[in-house]
Write a structure and sequence with these properties.
Layout lengths: L2 H9 L6 E5 L4 E4 L5 E3 L4 E4 L5 E4 L4 E6 L2 H5 L6
Antiparallel strand pairs: 1-2, 1-6, 3-4, 4-5
Length: 78
């Protein structure tokens, strides 16, 4: 996944929630475009506990779009 593809997910209108899946197995839910900041060297977001998460763009594996109805049931779409 390239940084440009991640930016496209953030800029999509209307915005749709998505999960970032990182190479180490971690995943982070992005529910609003203001919950993520992207630079060429770093992706910054916040986890469920409110902790700041710093991710190297090279570590981003996949981005899964999350359907709002299915998110309540713990399911997601690709």
């Amino acid at each position: 996944m390239g940084i440009d593809e991640l930016r496209q997910a953030v800029q999509k209108r209307p915005f749709k929630a998505f999960e970032i899946h990182v190479d180490n197995g971690e995943k982070y839910l992005i529910e609003h475009p203001e919950n993520i900041f992207i630079t060429p060297q770093l992706v910054v977001t916040v986890d469920k506990r409110g902790r700041t998460i710093l991710i190297s763009p090279e570590a981003v594996g996949t981005v899964w779009m999350v359907d709002a109805k299915r998110r309540r049931n713990g399911r997601r779409t690709r």
